[in-house]
Amino acid sequence: MGIRLSPLGVGVFLLLGVGVIYHLYAGVISNRLAAFRERRNVDLRDLLAISVEAAVLGGREVKKVHEEKGLKERSKGKTKEGANELLTMGDLQSHRKMYNLIKNTFPEVTVNSEEHDSVVDKEAAWSRDIPADILDKIEGGKEASSESVTVWIDPLDATQEYTENLVQYVTTMVCVAVDGKPVIGVIHQPFTGFTAWAFVGQGSNMHPRSSYSISPPSVIVSRSHSGQVKNYIHNAFGNSTTITEAGGAGYKVLALLQMPAGEKSSIDQADVYVHITFIKKWDICAGAALLMALGGHMTTLTGEDIDYSGEALNKGGLVASVGVDHKAVLEKLPSWNPEKH
């Protein structure tokens, strides 16, 4: 006597079979997806170490080009304020070292550099060395997903001053932002060899100075549009306010900080850094991380946090401080719209 299965019975059997197969493989697929996601995470201490290495390598190129008098400067155009934006071989050579080193090591991470170049160096590789002071102060195992990370590179900050032989202002910088917030900042001075670094919430080789003032503060500003900003500062803090003009956003952040013991420095000192026109995020992200790691702030002129993801241009100006009441500084600032100046 034969066994006959109804169409319904066949359907149920097939559905049960599919269910068994699904349960057999669902766990395998889930584990593989989890492993894939895990591989896409990056260790932030590794990113700090490679950021230091990249900044130093870029700095060597900057110094070498300058010493060999091979700048070959040309104009990239003009800023909104009419200042000439220069490009030199120092910018390009530094960019090639810094960008390729980081991108080759962390290909899934977004890397934004001030410069753009078609030269690809597939051989550029991280040494895997972690400097002793980083090992001493920073724990490993702090991870972020590659998709959440944006790296900002400034291969040569203060290019104008570089061409004028005012090399004390020149820096190379790397910043790591996670979900738009600056987490790691590196500012390297090629002509002194000093490197400042910080990891927000973990540590830094820099310190706030022992004393600051806001009554009135000493303020450091850009050389490139000193007339407008001087009037703005005097309106905010009074005509007796000391104003220092300097090149390079990286240099101006270092002017707010204390160098490590034993490091000689000819950097100017200031209580507050103010910038009232447009500025690019690769100029300021590293400094923002350094200040935040030391309890300081870098905001727009109206006190808003700056998002270090997306477009490169910060349109809100900036105020940077550490060791003072940042809110009190902001309250003294006159209304100002950088987009109208």
TrEMBL record:
The keyword Magnesium applies. The keyword Membrane applies. Its EC number is 3.1.3.25. It is a single-pass membrane protein. It catalyses: a myo-inositol phosphate + H2O = myo-inositol + phosphate. Its cofactor is Mg(2+). GO terms for molecular function: 3'-nucleotidase activity; inositol monophosphate phosphatase activity; metal ion binding. Keywords: Hydrolase, Magnesium, Membrane, Metal-binding, Transmembrane, Transmembrane helix. It comes from the Eukaryota. Its main location: membrane. It is found in: Membrane. One of its GO terms (cellular component) is membrane. Pathway: Polyol metabolism; myo-inositol biosynthesis; myo-inositol from D-glucose 6-phosphate: step 2/2. InterPro entries: CysQ/Inositol_MonoPase, Inositol_monophosphatase-like, Inositol_monophosphatase_CS. Mg(2+) binds at E114, D154, L156, D157, D283. One of its GO terms (biological process) is phosphatidylinositol phosphate biosynthetic process. It holds the Pfam family Inositol_P. PANTHER family: 3'(2'),5'-BISPHOSPHATE NUCLEOTIDASE 1 (PTHR43028), INOSITOL MONOPHOSPHATASE 3 (PTHR43028:SF4). Belongs to the inositol monophosphatase superfamily. This is inositol-phosphate phosphatase. It comes from Pleuronectes platessa.
